[in-house]
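Hi, here's the filled form for the chain we discussed.

Project: internal
Contact: R.S.
Residues: 165
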Amino acid sequence: MSKTIKELAEELSLSKSGIRKYLTASFRVRYTHESAHRILIDDAGIKVIKEMIAYKGVHSERTQKVHGVHTEQASAQSNSVLVEQLRAKDKQIEHLQKLLDQSQQLQLMAENKLKRLEMPQNGPERSSEPGDDQIHDRAPEAPQATKNSPEQPVPFWQRLFSPRK
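And the returned structure, exactly as it came back:
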């Protein structure tokens, strides 16, 4: 009993274009005939198409298995590369932490040195306060010269803007 492409596609759960791809010129000459502008496939042709689909299915399963093995190998290799990268990053992080610790220690040492340097300056200032009193107790320094003394020259601006005598 002959079937149309549409009937065969529904039976095999394929599309019409999926069935047409098996209809080569030599296949059409051997297993098809036309009736009322429809291509009919005879029983022998249906059997050949089913065998081709079965062969393709088995072949694709083998391909998937082989591809699966290759995929597993590739993923195992990529996993090992990623593990190596993680180890390298861990070493880098450890090194950076050591550098950070050293930097913090140096910072602390610098702050301590600054405190030590500031302490002597603060110390004499405190002790100099009573010394200031001693300075005031001393005799006053030499008397300042009067405004018109010949020893000191008159500044330019005073000469320019002072009232003339």
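Let me know if anything looks off before we file it.
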